[in-house]
Amino acid sequence: MTDARLFHWEYNPPPIAHEVFRVEGGTPLRGEVTISGAKNAALKLLAAATLTGERCRFMNVPEIEDVRVMVETLRDLGVVVDHPAPNVYEVASGDVDWLFVPLEAAAKMRASFILLGPLLARFGQVIMSNPGGDRIGRRPVNLHVDAMRALGAEIDYRNGYYFAKAPGRLRGAEIRFPNVTVMGTENAMLAATLADGHTVIRPAALEPEVDDLIAMLQKMGAEVERTYPDTIEVRGRRRLRGANHSVIPDRIEAGTFVIAAAVSGGDVTLRGAPCDHLGAFLEVLANMGVQVACGANSIEVHGAPRGSGAYRACDVETAPYPGLATDLQPPTSVLLTQATGTSRLYETIFEDRLEWLGELARMGASVEIIDEHHATIVGPSRLRGTAVEIGDLRAGASLILAALAADGITTIRGAHHVHRGYENIEGKFIGLGARIERLAEGTVATPA
Known about the structure:
The protein has about 450 residues and is of the alpha/beta class. The chain has 15 helices and 25 strands. It folds into two domains: about 210 residues, Enolpyruvate transferase domain (UDP-n-acetylglucosamine1-carboxyvinyl-transferase, Chain, Alpha-beta prism); about 210 residues, Enolpyruvate transferase domain (UDP-n-acetylglucosamine1-carboxyvinyl-transferase, Chain), CATH 3.65.10.10. Helices cover about 30% and strands about 25% of the residues. Strands 18, 19, 20, 21 and 22 form a five-stranded mixed beta sheet that branches. A four-stranded mixed beta sheet has the order 23-24-1-25. A four-stranded mixed beta sheet has the order 2-15-17-16. About 50% of the residues are buried.
């Protein structure tokens, strides 16, 4: 691969569909909803399939935009990806000779950078564009790059691209991250499965999606295990085999629908919900007075009547797992608008994640953003329908929740952000009785 080949590639981004959600609030949600497979697990599992030339089959894969982008990226590399049935994908990575992940893929989805480790380990070289993704703060990939260098890779950064190569096989090493990094842990682990020797990764992320990836790698014949809660050890193998795997349920989607039931004053049962992956989140809801009951494979939510002020204010702090997930902070913030008293938010992970609260304030919420990591919410507030705009995936879903709790009609621009991570979200809400539709921008009147 040469620089010339890199710059002969032509960047022609596809047009973004300008869509809006139109939501009429005030209806308590009732019924059952099935939780889809986890976005943050499925993307890494698809990347793991490039570690072998044998076929890997994945079930319970969410039909979302980020999966579509990852599949498209793999196919562009020369990987064979079949989609024989809904939520089922089969991946066969034979001789991949176009080891270049371009700007188009990276700009759409930061998770494309997870291909660095497996492609480098198996094929010995790869060119990766600097990744994009949601605008929720600085998410540098230097920890990923440092981990690959610790394993013996040579990586140069030029003109917005990482040029990586591994002279011979990667070599096992001790990888010490300065702080917990989920995708950094996963990238290091994927690379180490084919490295020569023993690799120790610490502190290793504790997220359930990381353990799901470990389970898949073990099926493929990798010698990888979590030897301590914050330590993952890998003994490299010469080759791995194909395997079948079902993606774990999406805990973030589950938490979103729990909040939807609570904030709308509804009664909803979540099927296929990972209650044991939501400990810190459910503790916050218990402190607020939300009635939630966990079953073996379900969660039942009984919301207080809308506008009753029955929920209690609560201080919320995000943290790496098993703490409260940063992706659940925006939905939780919507519920805090309906709690009596002053709630304090401390967002410890991303410095721009609180910016979306300005849109929530447009709907009538009493919100004060103190700095990039702190905010207060005073409730209960009577939310009202208006025109708002989505800035990122989780904020988008949260604005839908606010619209469900609001009086009147809300139009939400930027629907494409939500489709990156939620499978058929409007269909699932409609199944619970919500009045929501997705329309092309310009076909719906903007609320006064």
